[in-house]
Write a structure and sequence with these properties.
The protein is about 65% helix and about 5% strand. The protein is mostly helical and about 575 residues long. It has a three-stranded mixed beta sheet with strand order 3-5-4, sandwiched between helices. Strands 1-2 form a two-stranded antiparallel sheet. Helix 20 crosses helix 23. The radius of gyration is 24 Å and the shape is globular. The relative contact order is 0.11.
Length: about 575
């Protein structure tokens, strides 16, 4: 697949964001330009969209480079320059341009659903904007990245070598319980060094976010973020129903998994270092050696499902838009960062050869495919879709590839084991998603809470969503601060329940594929290609599923997964 950067029609092709003074004239042009026909209105929107794509891509590269090497001060400063010097100056112009667009009489001539969704987003941005929040948003943008730098600097000593936390985590799958316990304790001790700093940081973020919300006329940051995230298709009450449904339908199943594991290991209760080990004493699954092999085999799988999918990864590889291996100083986690102007995304990962890394690669690959499928959509806004849509792409890909994992496993027992692990994880993640989401609702409904109250609330939620099968005696502090490992709380508040909603959608896609794989892939591609030109329920409908996280649906999907697990185990 040959990809070229589209020729710009508004900014010079050679333009780069070096200073605000270089960028400002384009905003002035848009602000002062006369809009007296439908055609000039359309051109104005197109030019603004191009400007948004260029700015977004510039910020993206600053973030990508910074997270690849958190120890490089120049890269951190380049990112800080944008959030401190560019971002605050963008906001007033964006507000005035939004008002200009919203007030245009020609807006009514665009009746497609895509434009209705776009205009709705513009009107919401106008509603949210407050001049006094500009410096607060700049401060939040910078402070929210501290978590990544702190986590990226964490490492432990093992056999005379400093290893990353990602690599250390992979050792928790080893059968030697003495080794697992030692690694767990070293990781806990190292994380404890940063507990107070991250606790203080989170308190600062909460206070700043609450101030942003009240400045904009909201009672709390949760209500503000529901508008900010464009949650027009469901309410906070739906989230509460999701929490309760997970407690009622999923937690009992997950408890069964834990009880069975403890029995197989000959233990009355599991220890914290037992969560990732195989209960039958089999060696940890090692589906690949390094990032190169991971990419090669994932590409082969994608090729088999649809040659277009494989071409996407090949294109990214050829362009150098992948950084897959774990290394010292790299931010934790993984992501697919869309680059709206060129239309080719960047995948960042911390792979160490585990089955979890294989899933992450496939997951981010699903995001990447959606970036490619939407790259030719008319406006940048159409390519910037809510997470409920984005995560459907990635989580469905995890499920749809399962029957092709023999590219990584030539041993049938290992292949079956990998599938069982995936299905159990799919259900196990739902209580964690609900825990994090319910925690956030409480956090921002009670913004003046103390650290002690926060700790007590977290423990109470863990008890509600937990299985009670793990003995934390002597390691209570690890459990009390386990929320600090969830980067979403620090960097992207309220972005997490989408994983749960999309997981339900992904299970429905996978269920359809059992009946007609080819038809399911075709519907999946059509749904992804819509971007945000349809509502969330509309995108799900195109994929031949429903946007439904009711108790009835959760129960039905859980039973389907349970049946599939029985078949695999038999």
């Amino acid at each position: 697949m040959k990809v070229t950067r589209p020729k710009r029609t508004f900014l010079p092709d050679s333009f780069k964001i070096d200073t605000w003074e270089n960028l400002e004239p384009f905003f002035i042009d848009l602000e002062n330009r006369a809009i007296d026909t439908k055609e000039t209105f359309e051109k104005w929107i197109s030019d603004q969209s191009e400007l948004e794509a260029v700015i977004s891509e510039d910020l993206a590269w600053r973030y990508i480079k910074m997270t690849i090497d958190t120890k490089d001060q120049e890269l951190a400063e380049a990112y800080s320059f944008f959030v401190q010097e560019i971002q605050p100056k963008l906001e007033p112009f964006s507000f005035r341009l939004n008002k200009k667009l919203s007030a245009s009489p020609f807006k009514s001539e665009f009746k497609d659903e895509a434009y209705k969704i776009y205009f709705r987003g513009i009107d919401t941005a106008i509603k949210l904007f407050r001049e006094e929040n500009i410096p607060l948003n700049a401060e939040l943008a910078e402070k929210s990245q501290i978590h990544g730098a702190v986590s990226g600097a964490q490492s432990i000593e093992h056999e005379g070598e400093q290893i990353t936390m990602q690599k250390a985590s992979s050792l928790l799958k080893e059968n030697d319980e003495t080794l697992r316990k030692t690694i767990f304790e070293k990781m806990a001790k190292r994380r404890a060094e940063d507990t107070e700093q991250l606790d203080d940081l989170f308190t600062e973020l909460i206070q700043l976010r609450h101030k942003v919300a009240t400045n904009a006329g909201y009672d709390n940051f949760r209500d503000y973020m529901f508008d900010e995230l464009g949650r027009f298709d469901y309410t906070k009450e739906d989230c509460f129903d999701f929490h309760q449904s997970v407690k009622d339908e999923i937690v009992p199943l997950v408890k069964k998994f834990s009880q069975k594991k403890a029995e197989l290991m000959g233990k009355e209760k599991l220890k914290p270092w037992d969560s990732q080990v195989d209960p039958l004493g089999r060696k940890p699954l090692k589906p690949f050696k390094d990032g190169k092999e991971l990419l090669e085999k994932t590409t082969l799988i994608f090729d088999k499902i649809d040659p277009y999918f494989g071409d996407c990864l090949k294109t990214m590889d050829a362009m150098g838009y992948l950084d897959l291996d774990s290394k010292d100083g790299k931010s934790p986690g993984g992501y697919n960062y869309p680059l709206y102007e060129i239309g080719v995304p960047f995948i960042f990962m911390n792979s160490v050869g585990s089955q979890r890394d294989l899933i992450t690669m496939i997951h981010e690959g699903g995001h990447a495919i959606q970036s490619f499928l939407t790259r030719d959509l008319e406006l940048t806004s159409f390519k910037s879709f809510p997470s409920e849509i984005a995560e459907l792409a990635s989580m469905s890909m995890e499920m749809l590839t399962m029957d092709y994992w023999d590219e990584f496993y030539d041993n049938q027992e290992d292949l079956t084991r990998a599938k069982i692990e995936q299905l159990e994880t799919v259900l196990e993640v739902l209580p964690w998603v609900a825990t994090i989401d319910e925690f956030q609702h409480w956090i921002y409904e009670n913004p003046t809470h103390s650290k002690e109250e926060r700790k007590e609330k977290w423990i109470a939620l863990l008890d509600e969503y937990g299985t009670g099968i793990t003995d934390w005696t002597g390691y209570e502090a690890v459990r009390e601060y386990s929320w600090q490992r969830q980067l979403h709380l620090f960097e992207v508040p309220f972005y997490y329940i989408e994983y749960g909603m999309a997981q339900l959608g992904a299970l429905a896609v996978w269920k359809n594929s059992k009946d007609d794989f080819k038809k399911t892939i075709s519907a999946y591609k059509k749904a992804l290609a819509l971007g945000y030109t349809k509502s969330i329920p509309g995108v799900y409908e195109t994929a031949n599923i429903t946007f439904d996280f009711s108790k009835k649906n959760i129960k039905a999907l859980a039973e389907f997964v349970e049946e599939e697990l029985k078949d695999l185990e038999d």
